[in-house]
Amino acid sequence: TGYYDEARQVALSSRASHQFAPLLAEWINGGGMVPAHAAAAAAEECEKMFRMGDRVGRASYDKKKLLLYAIISGSRRQIDRLLRDIPSLFSTIEDFLWFILSAVQDFPGGTSSNEGLVPYSLDDLQAYLNKFEPSYYTKNGKDPLVYPYILLLSIQLLPAISYLSKEAGEEEYHIDAAHIAIVLADNGVLSEVSGAGQKLGVMDAYAEASSIIRQYGSMYLRLGNLQMALEYYAQAAAAVGGGHVSWTGRGSVDQQRQMNLMLKQLLTEILFRDGGVYLLLGSRGAGEEGELRRFLTDHKARQQFLLEAARQCLDSGLYDKSIEIQKRIGAFSMALDTINKCLSEAICALSRGRLDGESQTAGLIHSGNEILETFKYYPEVSFQEREHVSEQQTILRQLETILSIHKLTRLGQYLDALREVAKIPFLPFDPRAPDTSADVFQNLSPHVQACLPDLLKVAITCLDNVSDTDGSLRAMRSKIATFLASNMRQNWPRDLYE
């Protein structure tokens, strides 16, 4: 059990063990192995004792002496014979395990340096232990920790933490599994062993440990404790990257790539949660004041990560989160485009009777104006970005105009609504203006285009509810009809044409 100094002192202090003391010293100094001549001498001593058999009155002494010499010899033959001939030698499985662990000798290439002796290897031990079901060790679940304890002692590390994580009864052993996995991965030992019959590749072993750590971290994420989730997620990413070496850049190229991929994935998961932006980016800026800087030290890397995260937010329908991230990194035109997209959808929903549409549109317009105000004072804006912001500002104002017409119509102010329709600079509906043959529709933003069918319906409704005193309304109706006719291919609602 590792008490080598005590064992040495006992051997030297007893007259009966003087012959054994030098062999023990060699075994201790050699890290569990002795030179060929010493192993052969120990094996020969075992053979003598087996031949002599039990002496009357000295059976206990001979058995223990036999056990000690078998350990020193490291011979599979002597160990197997000892276990076969004296099955009652060990009263507990723990005693048996310590004996076997002491006897295990692994040599490069799987062969012993002691000529003629086949060593008892770690694979032999693991294969022997795995003959029995977990229930054999746990007494059908009464002692759930015995089985993972045996797995750990026999250096079956991944099976041990997997069992703790998933199957060790109703106790919260997944906590222990996560922390053991962190330690094993951090020290890089998972690449060395996995378990008999479970020879995983290096990356598979670390991925398994990483999964256990990640699952534990996700529990904190569900509870809203983002700071704790972040720490475990960082450990999960480090594990898949090879542990401690991943932070120092000494891992393989593939390990580093795997770590970066998982780290970004898990950071994005946290970013999407309420409070995630504040945790990772701080109260302002693009991560210089938040936790993100710990993991992505390069400014460009942070920018690229946040751009990709904003895109994923858009794909997931998390528009507010996307806008916030885009604002933080100075992607104002992208943020405005997102606002315009949402505003367009809100206007369409409002025109179809959605009750919360008005408050939503007001909030979006306010956000857009805030971004435009921030943009004025933002340093180092490229000429291209200024052009894009200007384009998005134009679209925002066009959508505001459309929204105002809807509001006037809902209030029954049909004539005022028609006056606003006539003023729209991006549509050819002014009855006093000359007809134009330009394809106006194609020049509009898709966000504005999406609002046109409902806007046309509103305009027609207003025309139906206002008296035409000077022929201007008839002219407007004609212009709307011409516009509809020139856009027959747009697949607009049929009632527009009726």
UniProtKB/TrEMBL annotation:
The keyword Membrane applies. Keywords: Membrane, mRNA transport, Nuclear pore complex, Nucleus, Protein transport, Translocation, Transport. It is found in: Nucleus envelope; Nucleus, Nuclear pore complex. Its main location: nucleus. It comes from the Eukaryota. GO terms for cellular component: nuclear pore. Transmembrane segments: none annotated. Belongs to the nucleoporin interacting component (NIC) family. This is Nuclear pore protein. It comes from Gossypium aridum (American cotton).
